[in-house]
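In the lab's daily routine, each protein ends up as an entry in a very long ledger. A line of letters takes care of the sequence, but it says nothing directly about the fold. The three-dimensional part falls to structure tokens, numbers that each stand for a local backbone shape. The outcome of that step, for a single protein, is printed below.
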Amino acid sequence: MDEKRTVKTSKMLSRILRHEPERVGIALDPAGWVRVDVLLAALAARGNRLTRAELDHVVATNNKRRFAYSPDGLSIRASQGHTVAVDLGLAATEPPPVLFHGTATRSLGAILREGLRPMARRDVHLSADAATATGVGARHGRPVVLLVDAAAMAAAGHEFRVSANGVWLTDAVPPEYLSQAQ
């Protein structure tokens, strides 16, 4: 599978497994899983043939590890980023003292006033390092990195979870826990 097809397939799977499973006629279970054979058959029925080996390649080579197989390898789901209602079953986890959030400079004023909200997603996404946050912010324009005082948030009772691909998730980040990285 060439790089161009790998990227195109990854984007398609993200759309289906995070946002629009009905687009190909599948339903995710409450935890976001769908059987691999059901997904592949649904894709083929819509003219988008994908073999299990090709799916394995996309899952294994995705640099953001967006997809995960169930322990038995029979089901697949997106690791995080859903707009459809799913419960990933992630346990509350003690966060590192500081987490990071990348955004575009044009959004900075509103975020510092209102905090971080999940918007269309189920959770706010945070990074464990500034470099990752910078990359995320750059997708939306000139990037700015925010520091999240995760230790203070946790002490105040805010819950954090970490996805299978290392993205830190929380319901919201109030503005008093944010500062701009220098």
Notes: The chain has six helices and nine strands. The CA atoms of residues 97 and 151 lie 4 Å apart. The chain has two domains: 3-78, 98-180. The mean pLDDT is 94.
